[in-house]
């Protein structure tokens, strides 16, 4: 805040118009008064001894996460999803699986990335007892099932993927946002990821405080979040190593999606967001000194502007992860562009000729409606989304899974019955 004060004093000393200065001071005071209001409202039920974190319900956790990813930190949550998906390719068993499925090539990579993004967005944005959440998770379970049965995807691999989704949210917010997450917000993230892991039938036996262990369970969602994050980091340290399939994963999902002149810079930017273990495992280059300084300047400036000069995002400008209604013409859900290929995007004047569309065209991207139905502009169906060979398959298995998932959704306080155990964080 001293920088702001110094700036105002300098303006006054330079005989700045008093009216202009008064308006600026009033605006900064308004930002300061409103900037932390959402955080305070989120924390209010659980501070000053009102309620323990163990009493937080699944629906409360969902409401908190919705505010964080749609209003408070939409940029960080979006980037965290992308980074977690990238890091999955740094685990050799996972990159090997991607390579042998026949889908890990430049022809299919664009759609695979969008399909995965959609399933994650659907599961992260919908209430646990909703049809869309249950269908998204059931579809993920079906697509993973045959590989799990063949032990080509291990339980530890899936737990790492789940944990990385959580860890990257915390990492990106701490590194790039105007404030960090509170314990209440981390508790909500822990509750969500615990529920998602349960619905994906991922065992938590390797975590020290799992209910079968002597500690007898986690105290609350915060306890679970910290423990899962620590295990995820340790797992990467143990298994992440450079392999040919890791390199192939990056070349397919990163290099092939970019114009040639951008690849070196983007690879270094991605490397800047990874620790040395995952950077080496993925074969990415560390950033140059100039790029490091530029990134640091941009992040510092963004933090400063958001904290002191930007009013909080109002609900009318919420960043919705998925469309809330179906395409009335097709009964399917459309998607917003997230790459150079317009998968599931409904052709419209804005999607074809708007500023975003024109920007994508500059870099060689396709417009919605290109090649007829090549990019499925009619939308996606959560019951059939995924690789073309699996299209329309698994409906019976998914139906049973959906019933089970929705049944679990009625649970309210997942940690209310957990025994209190000793919990320490190692430095």
TrEMBL record:
Keywords: Membrane, Transmembrane, Transmembrane helix. The keyword Transmembrane applies. The chain crosses the membrane at residues 12-31. GO terms for molecular function: oxidoreductase activity. This is ER-bound oxygenase mpaB/mpaB'/Rubber oxygenase catalytic domain-containing protein. It comes from Aspergillus mulundensis. The lineage of its organism: Eukaryota, Fungi, Dikarya, Ascomycota, Pezizomycotina.
């Amino acid at each position: 805040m001293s920088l702001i004060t110094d700036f105002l004093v300098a303006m006054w000393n330079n005989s700045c118009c008093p009216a202009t200065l008064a308006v600026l001071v009033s605006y900064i005071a308004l930002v300061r008064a409103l900037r932390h209001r959402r955080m305070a409202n989120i924390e209010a039920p659980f501070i000053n001894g009102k309620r323990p974190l163990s009493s937080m319900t699944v629906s409360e956790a969902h409401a908190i996460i919705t505010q964080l990813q749609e209003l408070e930190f939409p940029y960080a949550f979006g980037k965290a999803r992308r980074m977690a998906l990238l890091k999955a390719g740094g685990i050799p068993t996972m990159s090997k699986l991607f390579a042998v499925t026949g889908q890990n090539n430049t022809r299919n990579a664009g759609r695979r990335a969008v399909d995965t993004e959609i399933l994650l967005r659907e599961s992260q944005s919908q209430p646990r007892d909703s049809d869309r959440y249950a269908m998204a998770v059931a579809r993920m379970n079906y697509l993973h099932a045959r590989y799990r049965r063949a032990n080509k995807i291990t339980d530890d691999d899936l737990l790492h993927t789940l944990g990385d989704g959580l860890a990257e949210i915390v990492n990106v917010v701490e590194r790039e946002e105007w404030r960090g997450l509170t314990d209440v917000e981390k508790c909500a993230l822990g509750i969500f990821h615990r529920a998602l892991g349960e619905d994906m039938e991922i065992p938590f036996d390797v975590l020290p405080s799992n209910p079968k262990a002597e500690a007898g369970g986690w105290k609350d969602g915060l306890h679970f979040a910290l423990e899962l994050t620590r295990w995820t980091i340790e797992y990467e340290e143990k298994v992440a190593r450079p392999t040919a399939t890791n390199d192939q994963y990056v070349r397919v999902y990163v290099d092939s999606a970019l114009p040639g002149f951008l690849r070196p810079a983007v690879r270094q930017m991605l490397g800047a967001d990874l620790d040395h273990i995952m950077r080496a495992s993925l074969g990415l280059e560390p950033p140059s000194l100039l790029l490091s300084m530029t990134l640091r300047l941009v992040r510092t400036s963004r933090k400063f502007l958001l904290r002191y000069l930007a009013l909080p995002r109002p609900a009318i400008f919420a960043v919705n992860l998925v469309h809330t209604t179906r395409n009335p013409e097709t009964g399917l859900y459309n998607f917003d562009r997230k790459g150079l290929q317009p998968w599931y995007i409904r052709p419209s004047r804005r999607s074809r000729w708007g500023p975003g569309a024109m920007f994508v065209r500059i870099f060689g991207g396709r417009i919605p409606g290109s090649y007829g139905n090549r990019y499925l502009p009619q939308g996606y169906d959560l019951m059939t989304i995924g690789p073309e060979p699996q299209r329309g398959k698994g409906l019976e298995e998914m139906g049973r899974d959906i019933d089970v998932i929705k049944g679990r959704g009625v649970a309210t306080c997942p940690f209310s019955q957990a025994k209190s155990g000793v919990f320490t964080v190692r430095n």
